[in-house]
Predict the structure.
Amino acid sequence: MTAMQVTPYRLTFPHGLHIGVSGVDLEESGVVARADTLFAALLDAHGRAGHDAQAFAAPFALAPPDPPFTLTSAFPFAGGVRFYPAPVDLTEIVSAQQLAQRGKAIRGVRYLSESLWRRALNGEKLDGWLFPADENAEPMQGVALQGGELWLSAEEVERLPDPLRPRKGRLRALRFRRLWANARVPRVTVDRLTGASTIFHAGRVSFAPGCGLWFGVRWLRPDQPITAGGPAWEAALHRALLTLADDGIGGERSAGYGAFDWQADAPFELPAPQAEGRAFLLSRYHPRAEELPGVMDAEDCAYAIVSIGGWLRAPGVPAQRRKRIAMLAEGSLVRLPAELAGDVADVKPAYEAATGEPPHPVYRYGIAFGVAWPGRPSGDAE
């Protein structure tokens, strides 16, 4: 099986983070920064640095796309432990019998540690690695963190940052320790005409020391210049990250949310997706029309569909809503028609009158970051 190299980038947020949640007001914040959010931020930072943003977007927006790199979404990490999304179909990682017995606990798991995720990637069921049902029992193989939202192996505990790591022989305490915490922070807005103040609340995610989010980049043409005489792709991405580190990502950046420190770690390998083979999504995926319904209609596919809207801003025009599109969520299992699948959709709003429309396309990144996933064994329970 062909391997692909993935470069992980770690982001730590000293002042917290606000990621908007679809259908939820400003008082709530998500934890994961999606690949489409990251791409939009990189594109904007490249343009604000004085470069051609449309040239940056051009190879991604081709049909089919010819990207110089592909992105995962940004998932949690704690010290030396990276976490991955749990699969949509949980029988991919545990037996149907185990799911029937411990369904509530298993369905509460949102992210698997890299060690456990790679075991599942190799076709292994994780029944023997599940943390104990009794919260007071000492784990042997598997450990719960963040109230059971995170699942890791006991052997990975030594790689957690010191503030999270429990005393030896007290692994059960990890269930009650938090990699991140959600809070509602009071803010004040002042009317420009009357000077009257109004209090509102904004959601903020704060991470424990040594914890944050990581995302992966698969470089295809890192050293190719974006334009003649311009920066190469890898250099441009790093410059964009330097800009975003100060400006922040996500919402409520005027309050300091979303600013981060970053570093690139040593590349690692994952199995590259094969044409028509099963793939596990580490990013949102927007299939092209010709890819449907084949990516979704096989018996061994399992997916979640998310509807994504949101707001856009552009120089000289008021903030306005982007077109809403449907995408397949991370953790979905699909049959990709090719190693590179999906597209970057233009979600620029369309009005009867052209007044106030952005003068350029508004891109929503939907190129699949798929990892080859084993097929179901013959007779496997669904």
Observations:
- The two ends are 26 Å apart (CA to CA).
- The first helix runs from residue 35 to 48.
